[in-house]
Amino acid sequence: MTSHPSHRSVSALRARMIEDMSVRGFSEKTRNDYIRNVRAFAAFVGRSPDTATAEDLRRFQHHQAQTGVRPPSINSAVAALRFFFTVTLDRPDLARRLTVVREPRRLPAVLSVEEVTLLLQAAPGPKYKAAFATAYGAGLRVSEVVALKVGDVDSERMLLRVEQGKGRKDRQAMLSPQLLGLLRAWWREGRRLGVLLPRGWLFPGRNPLEPLSTRQLNRAVHAAAEAAGIKKRVSPHTLRHSFATHLLEQDTDIRVIQVLLETTTNCPRTPDRGADLLFVPPPVRRDRTDSQAIRLSRCRARRHSAAGRVERLHTGVDDARGSGALQAVC
Predict the structure, then answer these.
(1) Are both 5-95 and 113-329 of the same fold?
(2) Which CATH class name applies to 113-329?
(3) Domain covering 5-95 in this structure, CATH number
(4) Predicted confidence band at 328 (pLDDT cuts at 50, 70, 90)?
(5) Are 86 and 95 in contact (CB under 8 A)?
């Protein structure tokens, strides 16, 4: 029994697209997302996607809009199809037909210090309490929290090492004394239970050889928020937003927060920029975004690294937050 020719064609196209993505160093998640979106487009047109026309693309995007697909999902499909037509098929003329949808910008939900305290107290166990505290106390993304290993905690320099975070960059995050205390409490409990290996994951999953998944951490946050009676829509990323907002409410300079979060901030240029201003490049440069700088004393070049900036900044920041949620639960 022979395979249908179109099946062989689609399989060959998929293999070639995967090769193109692998050559460019795309992550496994991105590769899976791109393949899924191209597969959805092929199912819509009812034939191999390499036979698609500009009209097919127009109808597909119209179908997405009519069926209520949200802008992030539409734009994800646009990115996948643009790659497929431009790189894999070498047909950039079709890729230009795709339209990116503008997504309404909304303010994120932010928890008060009291609500963060309630959330930490409602955590379903010491492991999740320490994971929540890490997302809040260090301002980490959920993917960065679950990827931490035991050896990433530097208690001497009071830093957390984040390996291959967003944008595949290594960086250092602040480690406050309160957070260190919670992590040590979890380390003792994890060692007692036999789930924390010497060089293993800081927050292991059900199998100690595997890390906690982002989905598991999301579910734990939702369960804790419900148990704490928090009515806001809460996710692990809400803790990162709350970290930045609470620093801002303590009159911490927004450019300092930018360094701690390793992200881009939109704020006016510093009028008195001088030779002692240290440029802080955003991970992804955006058009019409003013460059930011942080005033630091002149010192050796080594101290101009991200690790050096965080090491110097986190002490003062932690003092400003000393009466916050982490201290309340310690």
Answers:
(1) no
(2) mainly alpha
(3) 1.10.150.130
(4) low
(5) yes
